[in-house]
Design brief:
The chain has two domains: 59 residues, no CATH class; 94 residues. Helix content is 18%, strand content 32%. It is built from two helices and ten strands, in the order H-E-E-E-E-E-E-E-E-H-E-E. It has a four-stranded antiparallel sheet with strand order 5-6-9-8, covered by helices on one side. A three-stranded antiparallel sheet has the order 2-1-3. About 15% of the residues have low confidence.
Length: 163
């Protein structure tokens, strides 16, 4: 058994464990990014923002835990604010097939699931790469919309997670 390798691994685990607190309290734009330096010869990692000449820079993203917000819509198509989080309002299109959500944050994606009997359910966040703001305003009749769910003639309610 190579005690030197075991010592290096245990030291790395201890370093990551004690340094994680400092990383978690970061308030910069890179708060979800972990930066480290890898020794060019041994590969040993060291958490740091700047690397030495004998090291190379490495980084990886932290995994977010759960949705930032969610919305519950009952089978009778009413918004359930007590079973929702970070949703300031829900409006429906004039034809009733589009559900428009105003959130307290800007989502990048969403996942929608329906109760029993639900079909044709599709959700999009509003933004340049998904549903355009102009289209969302046309569907919802308001500029205060961050996500839109299409659910025509649904026989159930649905639940939307926003990240």
């Amino acid at each position: 058994m190579d005690w030197r390798k075991i010592t290096v691994v245990l030291g790395l685990v201890l370093l990551v464990g004690t340094s994680g607190t400092a990383l978690a309290t970061s308030t910069s734009a890179d708060a979800l990014k972990i930066n480290a330096c890898a020794n060019r010869k041994t590969g040993q990692l060291r958490l740091a923002q700047r690397c030495r000449s004998t090291e190379r820079s490495v980084s990886w993203a932290q995994q977010a835990a759960g949705p930032q917000g969610y919305a519950s819509v009952a089978a009778d198509k009413t918004f359930m604010p007590n079973a929702s989080r970070n949703v300031t309002a829900m409006t429906r299109s004039t034809d009733g097939d589009y559900y428009c959500f105003d959130l307290t944050f800007t989502p990048v994606n969403m996942v929608v699931s329906a109760g029993f009997g639900g079909s044709y359910i599709v959700g999009d966040v509003v933004g340049s790469s998904t549903l355009s703001r102009d289209r969302a305003i046309a569907l919802c009749g308001t500029a205060a919309v961050d996500a839109v769910v299409y659910f025509p003639k649904g026989e159930s309610g649905f639940y939307a997670n926003f990240n």
